[in-house]
Design a protein that fits this description.
462 residues; eleven-stranded antiparallel β-sheet; eight-stranded mixed β-barrel; 7 helices
């Protein structure tokens, strides 16, 4: 978690030189994503970019699915220069090995086993930005040659096949980028159950990186924002391992901010009972662990944010999902608006109990990723109503706790905070603007979040 605030001090103009004798060249190395896609090869520290994936296509050659982030449940292991990824895609179990053979050369071994009979063909797909490399013609070939398309940048990628194959090519558009895709067949069709298809590829990259020194001038008369430091999501999900990881981080890093869980479902499972009357020894172990974590962070001088994931059944509309996943494609549950006052009281009781029994006054409160429904689901207007309603309620009970504007799943759902940005009466209850950094790192999106925090006059949490 990153937190930045406005900088009011003015320093001196300085210059920093990068490069020269201090920039040691790095050896070539494949960049391998956890799901198995090779995303380029480093040559003297600079990435020669391309992306491989395993694709499944229909009889027309149209790709229906491919290995990608958050699309499979892969297992990744590394031994020396070799990365091994085991995963599934459609009807195929996949074992992939990527080995750095020598500078600029990578060996890619694939084994695909059909778990059931299928007519779907598997391909190695190679994606490159259009105009970045020379074009590849479809047809029979044993090598894919991708010379740099720009004469000012010397780079080349070649992919050798172990046997001649019929290449297919497609134009694609993904994440706003125009791509050229080359498809190399791995399996024949149809594949019978238990059939294993193997393929080996040799990937080579070369180039002449621009290693001339650069000079950066810092004009400190125009300050930006101060970075407070790294923070942590100190949520106890694995009682056996998480405390060890947290203890190590706290002992070896300067942690500036803390975010802990409010286990709402176990704190207040019954809407009738008053959970705040219990002694600390009567608390559910998960609740006690969360409150003790908050105390540990507060004693180290960190502001503590309390966030809720799983709501109790009485507080929401519809049955809670048994597995914690989506129901009919929809994540999370909406809050029951007929229970609004009880919901405010339940959350406030928790924060008061934390203050009274553990000496921690929460700096801010939020529902985790409520734009997506992990696990309370809200609309943008409901998010605004919560900020004003719960924020006001907590103040009437003597708490200084503020609300997070956002706490959204990614940088992309900017729509979620627009109503609050346009309603300045909500700003006194907002302690920070915040978003998760899973995806959405374009300049325009990051600028939006920075501007939103500046507009409200609060810190920005990432």
């Amino acid at each position: 978690m990153l937190r930045m605030k406005s900088l009011s001090t003015v320093g001196l103009l300085g210059t920093i030189a990068l490069g020269g004798p201090f920039a040691a060249p790095a050896g070539a190395q494949a960049i391998v994503a956890a799901w198995g896609n090779v995303e380029g090869i480093r040559v003297r520290g600079e990435v020669v970019p391309f992306e491989t994936s395993i694709c499944l296509a229909d009889s027309t050659g149209t790709v229906r699915t491919r290995t990608a982030k958050e699309r499979q449940t892969p297992r990744f292991a590394r031994t020396g220069a070799t990365r091994t990824i085991t995963t599934r895609l459609g009807a195929y179990s996949i074992v992939e090995r990527v080995e750095d053979v020598r500078p600029g050369e990578v060996r890619l071994d694939l084994a695909l086993t059909a778990d059931s009979a299928t007519a779907t063909r598997a391909f190695l797909c190679i994606d490159v930005l259009r105009g970045y490399y020379g074009d590849v013609r479809p047809g029979r070939a044993r090598r894919i040659d991708l010379p740099g398309a720009m004469s000012s940048i010397m780079r080349r990628v070649t992919i050798d096949l172990e046997r001649e194959a019929t290449l297919l090519t497609r134009d694609e558009r993904r994440d706003g980028r125009e791509l050229r895709r080359v498809l190399v067949p791995i399996t024949t069709t149809p594949a019978e159950q238990g059939t294993t298809s193997r393929a080996t590829f040799t990937l080579r990259a070369s180039g002449s990186p621009n290693d001339r020194p650069i000079t950066i001038a810092l004009d400190t008369s125009k300050p930006g924002r101060v970075w407070d430091g790294l923070g942590g999501n100190f949520r106890i999900q694995n009682p056996r391992l998480d405390p060890q990881v947290i203890a190590y981080n706290l002992a070896n890093m300067r942690v500036a901010w803390a975010r802990v869980e409010m286990p709402w479902r176990t704190w207040h499972p019954d809407s009738v009972a008053d959970p705040a009357t219990r002694d600390t020894t009567q608390l559910d172990p998960r609740v006690r662990a969360a409150m003790e974590m908050a105390r540990t962070a507060a004693r180290k001088g960190m502001p503590v944010i309390v966030s809720a994931w799983f709501p109790p059944q009485w507080a929401v509309v519809g049955p809670l999902p048994r597995s914690g996943g989506p129901v009919d494609g929809v994540w999370g549950n909406a809050l029951d608006t007929t229970k609004t006052e009880r919901i405010y009281a339940s959350i406030t009781w928790y924060l008061q109990y934390l203050k009274q029994h553990y000496g921690v006054e929460a700096w801010a409160f939020s529902f985790n990723e409520s734009d997506l429904g992990i696990d309370v689901r809200q609309t943008a207007q409901e998010h605004l109503d919560l900020i004003k309603g719960l924020g006001s309620y907590m103040k009437t009970k003597g708490l200084k706790t503020t609300m997070l504007l956002g706490d959204v799943s990614d940088a992309t759902p900017t729509w979620f905070i627009q109503p609050a940005l346009n309603d300045s009466t909500s700003w006194p209850f907002i302690g920070a603007v915040s978003y998760h950094s899973w995806r959405g790192w374009s300049d325009s999106l990051l600028t939006f979040w920075n501007d939103a925090a500046n507009r409200v006059g609060v810190p920005l949490l990432v």
